[in-house]
Amino acid sequence: MVTDQLTATAPAPASAADDEVRAALDRRAAAPPRVPLWGTASAGAWIVAAVLVLAVPDTTRFRVDATTAFGIVLAVVAAVIAVAAAVSLQSERTRSALSRRLPWAIAGAVWIVVWELSTAKSGWLAPPYFAAPQQLLYEAFNDRGILARSLGSSLVLLATGFLIGLIVGIATGVLIGWSERADYWVHPALLYLGPVPAIAWIPIVFVAAPTSFLGAVFLIALTVWFPVTLLTRAGVVSTPRAFYDVAQTLGADTRFLVTRISLPSALPSIFTGAFMGLGMSFATLTVAENFGVNAGLGWYINWKKGWSAYPAMYAAILIMVLFCGGLLIALLRTRDRVLRWQKDLTRW
User: Where, by residue number, does the polypeptide cross the bilayer (predicted)?
Assistant: First the structure.
């Protein structure tokens, strides 16, 4: 009897499938890291791009003083990648970061080679509608002062409108998510007026606003307000009723329920609304800067387009791409830090 009980409670022997899984994990751990291989390929690709820029002469249509400087920049990038790949052999964190980015580095070098061959080296894509990469570098350097001021102006305008829209959107979403009476009056108006593009209000806003800057801020705030309000309300409404019941049993008042239960529970939805609002605000920013706001990247792009200065316009567009992408990445990093407890549960 005792023997039967011991046999029943003894752990089952490892199956053949478990042995195969462990063997695969051991082989993966013992395998040499792929980073050195990717690092060598990436550095080599950027060296090829640098040699192409420096050794092959430009066609007569693309004589740019920045060709040498551009080739040196590409060589520096290749050196940085090679050093980072070497350092990654001693750092697990660096190796993990590079393993995801080096394929993109190779793709970037290939794109530079194709771009360079089709413009400056062959003249197949001719000016004025097409520009070589060193032309963008040249124009950005020549207009560095006005581009820096335009970037700062766009950042101030976007940050002001985004923060106002975010704060008002969270307040409105919590109000209509918590109060049935407020939801009765506000929610229908939100559904009908919110989807209207903010730029459709331009004729009214810039006539009614005291200054063009305040009008542009209002348009950006309106763009952010709608998705933040809608998703904040959804987050508050979807909070489990059991959370409120437990808190009220322990003596929590209405203020505690709103600030310590509703808002934290709605944070994932709030960040989703902020992400959507920030992406939509970029288009509103570009349009708003062309109506009475004599500064900003959108204004600069429209100004250069009016003079058919396409290389300078492309340079500003590239700066705007980096500007918008950097802000979105910063928002995602903030979301990951604030919602550490949700790690591996949701993904953007």
Answer: 35-56, 68-89, 101-118, 155-178, 190-207, 213-231, 265-288, 308-332
**Residue pLDDT, tens place only, 157-171:** 999 999 999 999 999
**Could you read off the pLDDT of 141-196 as tens digits, one per residue?**
999 999 999 999 999 999 999 999 999 999 999 999 988 898 899 888 888 888 88
Counted residue by residue, the chain has a size of 348
Domain count, the chain: 2
| Contact predicate 201/195, CB 8 Å | no
Query: Residue 155 falls within a domain, yes or no?
Result: yes
Name the one residue in this structure whose structure tokens are 């976007």: 158
Same domain flag for 327 and 266: yes
> From residue 193, how far is each of 9, 163, 201, 224, 228 by CA, in Å?
66, 21, 11, 13, 14
> Are the CB atoms for 58 and 120 separated by under 8 Å?
yes
In a domain, 234, yes or no: yes
Q: By C-alpha distance, which of 76, 75, 83 is closest to 51?
A: 75
Q: Are 295 and 150 in contact (CB under 8 A)?
A: yes
Block means of pLDDT (10 residues each) for the chain, length 348 residues?
A: 43 51 49 64 92 90 83 93 79 74 91 94 88 92 93 94 96 91 89 86 84 89 94 91 85 86 90 94 88 83 91 94 94 88 61
Q: Is 308 left (phi over 0), alpha (psi -120 to 50) or beta?
A: left
Question: How many CA atoms does the CB half-sphere of 161 hold within 13 Å?
Answer: 31
Both 272 and 328 in one domain: the answer is yes
Tokens standing for residue 316: 């500003």
C-alpha to C-alpha distance for 83 and 250, rounded to whole angstroms: 58
Domain CATH number, residue 228: 1.10.3720.10
Residue 20: inside a domain, yes or no?
Answer: no
Q: Which domain holds residue 90?
A: 33-120
Position 287 scores a pLDDT of: 87
